[in-house]
Amino acid sequence: MKHLACSALLCYVSLSLGEFLARVIAVANQKGGVGKTTTAVNLAACLAAAEQPTLLIDCDSQANATAAIGFSKDPSRRTMYHTLILNEPYEKVVQKSQVDGLDVLPADKNMAGAAVELVGADNREYKLQAFLQPLRERYKFIILDCPPALDLLTLNALVAADAVLVPIQCEYLALEGVSELLDTLMRIRRTLNPSLEIEGILLTMYDERTTLSRQVATDLRSFFGQQVFQSVIPRNVRLAEAPSFGKPIIFYDIHSKGAEGYTQLAQEVIANVEKRAGTGARSAHSGA
């Protein structure tokens, strides 16, 4: 199955990014229902299929990313909770996924308790950052799926991240939350993570047949310019079905529009890293 995914991804030449620490990307938006988990899971799978070793971390107590990548509920499984609260080592927590080159740090309902237990912890905002530091030499990318709220779990993800990828649904109500999110990111940059960048803004649930989707896309590109990814994620039935089968879209239906959108997104993210490293031959926005 992997060779099918790679054949689509590697029409864009497989990139050698050199020896450097993993790029840590938090997929975040304070508004729910904008495609955060779908984006985190499928971006991670597409990066791994493009031969970029990737770690997907589920930071949400709903554990939707864990289920969407193919892990059923298992009370005995160690999760992100055990990492943040009980200091379990990497080897006991990280799981191999069905995608070659993609590891997963799963979540479960105990994560809701972690947000409470962290309140009284020392260096509570830096727990995830400390855990990830020795892992950054093992991967090219680490993708963090954040909860739809600015709690201590999201804060840990944003402090640990190099950059934030912001999925935005193509509707006007979604636009209203963008300024709030950017204000939050600016505060975090001033106080906790001065090097935090914007990886890019991703248009999701795009329907080219509607004037609304086209207008929202135009407004975002006009205001944010090169910070908006060229890749667009369409409203796609196969993409919506894939999580119920525990598969990323490139394994569920490689020929779907959703698979095409996330394949292109992975290419842009890889190209951005190459560009930062000064080796990119293809143009891409800086995401800065």
| Rg, Å, rounded | 18 Å
Strand order of the largest sheet: 3-4-2-5-1-6-7-8
**How many helical elements?**
13
Average pLDDT confidence is 88
The percent range for strand residues is 15-25%
Helix content: 40-55%
Unreliable parts: 1-8, 10-18, 280-288
Global morphology: globular
Strand count: 8
The termini sit apart by 35 Å
User: Structural class, please?
Assistant: alpha/beta
Give the helix/strand layout.
Elements: H1 2-9, E1 23-27, H2 36-49, E2 54-58, H3 64-68, H4 80-84, H5 90-93, E3 95-96, E4 102-105, H6 111-117, H7 127-132, E5 141-145, H8 152-160, E6 163-169, H9 172-191, E7 197-206, H10 211-224, E8 228-234, H11 237-241, H12 249-252, H13 257-277
Helix pairs in contact: 2-13
Describe the structure.
Residues 1-8, 10-18 and 280-288 have low confidence and may be disordered. A hairpin with a 5-residue loop joins strand 3 (95-96) and strand 4. With 288 residues, the protein is an alpha/beta fold. The protein contains 13 helices and eight strands. The chain has an eight-stranded mixed beta sheet, with helices on both faces.
Summarize the structure.
The chain is of the alpha/beta class. It contains 13 helices and eight strands. Residues 1-8, 10-18 and 280-288 have low confidence and may be disordered.
